[in-house]
Amino acid sequence: MAKSVIILGNMAKPLVSEKIAELRGWFERRCRIAAVCAADAPLPAEAAGADLCVVLGGDGTLLAAARLLADAGVPLMGVNMGKLGFLAEFNIEHMQKHFDDVLAGAVKPVDRMMLVVSVTRDGKTVFGSPAANDVVISAGAPFRMIDLHVAGDGKQIAQYLGDGLLIATPTGSTGYNMSAGGPIMEPALDAMTITPIAPHSLTLRPIVVGSDRRIEVRAGHVNSGTAIIIDGQVTAGLSDGDMIVVGKAARGARIIPHPGRSFFQTLSHKLKWGISPHHAE
């Protein structure tokens, strides 16, 4: 029986819908297309039983697909049609080259840890979401420092005064976390980073904790525009006294890796990591 494949695309990106239409016949000769979906639309019921999801867009599209399909365990093959393509490692040519091997199981998906976050206000849950990259608490307007009290499994970790805080998965460690001065983690690690954003202290530094931790963040004092942001895509407002709880999700994302490139090669190629400076003579 032919393998079942979802084609999911960021239709807002130039040429994505045209490329999907162009490739449809190519896909149909190799698999059964379960659905063709826009990344910002609900998935049809039959998508949950697919053998593979080919994601055309960029890293943001792949993150959205991870949140949509993590519970279903559908492997994701990211095809970059954006700028960076750090997570969406394949271009169209490489996707076509490796597609048959992926369907045959010769290229195995790797598990990427995800987070689950909830916000409780006055004893009621007002927000919840999975996160593939990170959970960010951002000060927002009027851009005064905010006060966040962080605990792990009920035991105090630190009080953070500054512009906010982010909690990242290993996958998300190369995103906002890295830009904020947090550590880069190998994708297979079972851990998360807690990285302050512009802390008003010389002593507060990013830390790495085990994924078995239940991280509790109490909003001591926040601004009217303070928000929690999931993967840079899903947002909700926060108020004084809110409790944000972050932990490891029961199921992670399953990502098809590029078979011709290691994580460190991707770091070097995409982010110029580990490349010695060239000194002018």
Give structural notes.
The chain has 281 residues and is of the alpha+beta class. It has two domains: 4-112 and 252-271, Probable inorganic polyphosphate/atp-NAD kinase, domain 1 (Rossmann fold, 3-Layer(aba) Sandwich), CATH 3.40.50; 115-248, Sandwich (Tumour Suppressor Smad4), CATH 2.60.200.30. Helix content is 18%, strand content 36%. It has helices at residues 16-28, 59-69, 92-104, 176-179, 263-271, and strands spanning 4-9, 32-38, 52-57, 76-80, 110-112, 115-121, 124-131, 134-138, 146-152, 155-162, 164-168, 191-197, 207-210, 215-221, 227-230, 234-237, 243-248, 253-255. A six-stranded antiparallel sheet has the order 7-6-17-14-9-10. The radius of gyration is 20 Å and the shape is globular. It starts with a strand and ends in a 10-residue tail after the last helix.
List the helices and strands and how they pair.
Elements: E1 4-9, H1 16-28, E2 32-38, E3 52-57, H2 59-69, E4 76-80, H3 92-104, E5 110-112, E6 115-121, E7 124-131, E8 134-138, E9 146-152, E10 155-162, E11 164-168, H4 176-179, E12 191-197, E13 207-210, E14 215-221, E15 227-230, E16 234-237, E17 243-248, E18 253-255, H5 263-271
Parallel strand pairs: 1-2, 1-3, 3-4
Antiparallel strand pairs: 5-18, 6-7, 6-17, 8-11, 8-15, 9-10, 9-14, 11-12, 12-13, 14-17, 15-16
